[in-house]
Amino acid sequence: MTISALKEWAIVCKGFEEGRQTILLRKGGIMERKHGFELKHNDFYMFPTYEHQSRELLQQDYADKFESILQSKPIDDLNTIYLYAKVIYITETFNREMLYDLRDFHIWNEKYINLRMDYNPEKPLSIVLLRVYRLNSALSVTLSPQQAGCRSWIDFQSLSMEDSEDNIGKPVLSNDMFHERQSQLMEVLNI
After folding, report:
1. First CA to last CA across the chain, in angstroms?
2. Structure confidence by residue, pLDDT tens digits, 74-88
3. What is the domain extent for residue 18?
4. Where residue 97 sits, what CATH number does that domain have?
């Protein structure tokens, strides 16, 4: 069986796990520069990464969690996947001011937003609303050399049956809380 995973900073995965973060802001990695970020899957596992994370790119209320995330960094190439996500809504923007207004939906600060907007400036930034679920049993996976580097999507082959849909647990946010957040997001996006 093959599963697809989106590589994302471990601190961001923590933000999703705690319900503090509900959107992704993506342009793609260095290896995707030519085409930009592409949403290849409507549902996927979230693979926490530790490269390129920076405390100085986080909102102050979340920066204090940064050290504990670094201390949980896996040894060697073994990692743990503990979140599953479903795409609820996606849009693209070049509007930097609107992105600043989305600060309640993610943990990044203005410096991060400016860096993302300035990177590959001819490409829009993707805003992706996710409904995130905890797995009933975390998946232990090993990252191969082919999966390393600045790419968004990776696939894992031949995992145990624990990676089946039966392993997808409860959503991080209750239905009411999620729908309230979704409404607030649509208001900021003027949709």
Report:
1. 38
2. 777 678 889 999 999
3. 2-188
4. 2.30.130.30
pTM value is: 0.87
What does the H/E/C string look like for 83-122?
Answer: EEEEEEEEEEECCHHHHHHCHHHCCECHHHHHHHHHCCCC
The tokens 């995330």 sit on which residue?
69
CA contacts within 13 A on the Cβ side of 46: 26
Rounded CA-CA distance 182/191 in Å is 11
Sign of CA dihedral 179, 181, 130, 16: negative
Nearest to 84 by CA among 177, 178, 168: 168
Number of compact structural domains in the chain: 1
Helix, strand, or coil (residue 189): coil
Across the range 139-168, mean pLDDT stands at 69
DSSP code of residue 58: B
- CB atoms near residue 139 (< 10 Å): 20
Tokens of 32: 């995707």
